[in-house]
Design a protein that fits this description.
It contains 3 helices and 5 strands. With 98 residues, it is α+β, with helices and mostly antiparallel strands. Strands 2-1-5-3-4 form a 5-stranded mixed sheet, covered by helices on one side. The protein is globular and about 35 Å long. The model has no long low-confidence stretch (mean pLDDT 94).
């Protein structure tokens, strides 16, 4: 099972508390995890990735194992610790302003 940590506003939208556990078939990549997340919680479609382009929204970042994966290819395999459920895949709402 893949563990996914969502920011508070997305947890509220999906009506979940804490981390979400997902079953991902095939290679564990950002794309496969986000596809599984959106399939299980359709209300999240378009909140993390753009509906048309499927690219990460500007104010959303992805982290795993203390690494910023936001600019990695969606098809790059996630770290092994995430793939086996030891570490969570983090979806973080970025801050802007000054």
């Amino acid at each position: 099972m893949i563990r996914v940590a969502l920011p508070a506003h997305l947890r509220a939208l999906a009506h979940v508390e804490g981390e979400v556990s997902l079953r991902v078939t095939g290679p564990v990549t950002q794309r496969s995890v986000l596809d599984a997340l959106e399939a299980r919680y359709p209300v999240l479609r378009g909140t993390i990735r753009d509906h048309a382009t499927r690219r990460r929204r500007a104010f959303v970042r992805f982290f795993a194992c203390e690494q910023d994966l936001s600019h990695e290819s969606p098809d790059t395999p996630l770290p092994h610790a995430v793939a086996i459920g030891v570490e969570p895949y983090l979806v973080v709402g970025a801050m802007a302003g000054g």
